[in-house]
Amino acid sequence: MVSALPGGGERATATTEGTLAVELVHRAEEHPDLTFVSFPDVDLTYAAFLRRAVAMAKGLIAAGLRPGGHVAALMTNSPTYVELLFGVHLAGGVLVPLNARFKRRELSYVLGRCDAELLVTTDAVDEHTDFTALVSEALPDLRPGPDGTVTAAGAPRLRRIYLDGAKEVPFAAPLPGLIEAGRGVPDDAVTAATHARTADDTAVLLYTSGTTADPKGCELTHRALRGSWSAFADVVGLRRGEAMWTPCPFFHVGGIGPTVSALVRGAAVMSMSHFDPEVALEHIERRHAEHLFPAFPPLTLGLLRAPGYAPERLRSVRTVLNVAPRETQEMIQALLPAEATLLTDFGMTEGAGMITATALDEPEGDRLGRNGNPIPGIEVRIADPDAPETLVPVDAPGEIQFRGVNAFRAYYRDPEATAATILPGGWVRTGDSGSLNANGSLLFLGRRKDVLKVGGENVSPLEVEALLSTHPEVRMAQIVGRPSARYGEVPVAFVETTDGAECTGADLIAFCRGDLASYKVPREIRFVTSWPMSATKIQKFRLRALLEE
């Protein structure tokens, strides 16, 4: 019975209102039979999911987790991942989602700094990435103990590792054993742990993508996540019993966020372990999903350019969220069914995901060409990047800064980076360029560090990338600068083409010459079949390194 689970059917006190754990208990009490988590091969109702999350919480408590303790997850998307997220919160802990694309150095760096006491991983994708082997490489001194514990000088607080899978690993215990160990933990212990945390406590320690430097751990509170993604639920008109599909990884705020949106509205979050366009289309059709959150062009266009795609397959869809320049947005909107409205936003990990968003009723030109107004509880301003507390005029470019309910608390164990990013008054520096018009609508102009200087002229990579993305045989394009004795630097395009494409580098350069000033036209096209990725972003510093090689 749901009433026997933590919370006892009573509304939360002022100290616990808004925590994700308490929110889950409330939704399971109110709508036990509605679907909360949906994967292509499994659907879980709120009541069934809560039972599984409580079982996970009891296991974590039996393993020694106490309120405020850290649990790391190195996994691909799965129902178990979502159960772990909420199980950790029901046990009063903090989840540390580890980027599943990390390599040895990156994983070693984060495990050495995140203070995780427990680590949960999987063998579900061993044919692509062997996570247990990666952990061994990242922690070469990892040793199993006689009582199921582990030791590693590189991760001094880590004491237990669990595997969601079937293979035997000397240093990892089977995850079902964790659940079994929790059977003796009483419900009262989970209730006490849940209520030991408040909305202003850290919910997840989410490491930034590391596109330009070592990852930094953003402390995101329950209140920040709930505020950011409740606002997004309002933007798209998400209703009880509806469904929101996202293929974004749960180690990224783009995966966690839609899950929170679904939770606060009594809706379903739909996801998948890896992106397969045909499987996604079938899942969306079966569940009649009303909202899609692919967020990034590789996923959005991957769905809309799939061989089996037809607009009528998305006839249930009302909204789609994708972040891209105007040209790409216009192309995507044309591929969608007429009833589906394409939206965009501006967000980042430090803002718990959502900072601005376009509205359903905005004129199409603004909805597809700008990044929208701040969500409720958020302020945005544009400042001189060299004098970060000096504002620039309306429509003038500068550094985007924000403050409000969704701002991260701090970079974990990094007071210097925190002080450099959070200014007096709570304003957060984003490192992104943009402008605000007279109506307060944001236009994102790109990462300040990515802007090229070609013969004294500024070149925005976004502009060139957006144009290349409209070529019918281009799946993805990225622009970086190559040093030039004559011009300082010149643009070079890395391009991934669609299956069966026949275009040449010369074809794509000619395509650009018709629409761009000569100094913006790529001097070279390099074709690629894969990208150096962080969570969801392409690491341009690695592309630049390829040019140097």
Automatic annotation (TrEMBL):
GO terms for biological process: fatty acid metabolic process. InterPro entries: AMP-bd_C, AMP-bd_C_sf, AMP-dep_synth/lig_dom, ANL_N_sf. Residues 463-535 form the AMP-binding enzyme C-terminal domain. Belongs to the ATP-dependent AMP-binding enzyme family. This is Fatty-acyl-CoA synthase/long-chain acyl-CoA synthetase. Residues 26-412 form the AMP-dependent synthetase/ligase domain. GO terms for molecular function: medium-chain fatty acid-CoA ligase activity. Pfam families: AMP-binding, AMP-binding_C. SUPFAM superfamilies: Acetyl-CoA synthetase-like. Coiled coil: none annotated. It comes from Actinomycetospora succinea. It comes from the Bacteria. Keywords: Ligase. The keyword Ligase applies.
